[in-house]
Amino acid sequence: MATTPEITKEAIRSAAKNIGSEGKEFAYPLLYEVCGVSEASDVVKATVRTRINEMVQAKELTRVRDGVFTYNSKYRLRGESPFRQRVWRFIRSQKPGWTFKDASLLTGVSYTHILRYCTWLEQEGYIAHAGKQGQVNTYMATDLADKTPEMPQPPTKDHQPFERECRAAGKIVNLMLYGNPYQPKTAQEIVEAAKVLLARFEPAIPTQ
Q: What confidence tens digit (pLDDT) does each residue in 21-36 have?
């Protein structure tokens, strides 16, 4: 059985923005198709609908009628920063082998900002190590970055404090229900998601 596909908030936002801009109306079936989850499980589709409802509440989308939406072109993400746009364009345009120093020099963004944003991007799977340049790590954009033209936005302080942990827990449930845990790749994904939960909650357990 195939592994359940992951769908990120940025991917949903990018899809909704592309098909719902300039007053164009779209419904869930078209959104599922654009996001590549038409054949996915009900759990994955429910995740898409939850994200869409959040975007409606934030006034990023307008609900025209039940199940039909348009994108609000005047909407701006809270905390959206112009420097991140420059860094994201740099990352997606570069060949593998760039360093954080390269990113800082070529975008005009401070090294501190580059380090903070790129560390988050690596944690979320948008960039990965490509090798070494002397003692310095080099990086590359991943397939996820190539598929995400819209700039990924780190969560702001008023977001769900356990957002990453909720995604990890949901991933475990999806893989257990709709994947094949006996396959090494699926088993490894379950273990990696479980590590996220352990890293967050195990230290909070009092020692006896």
A: 778 899 999 998 888 8
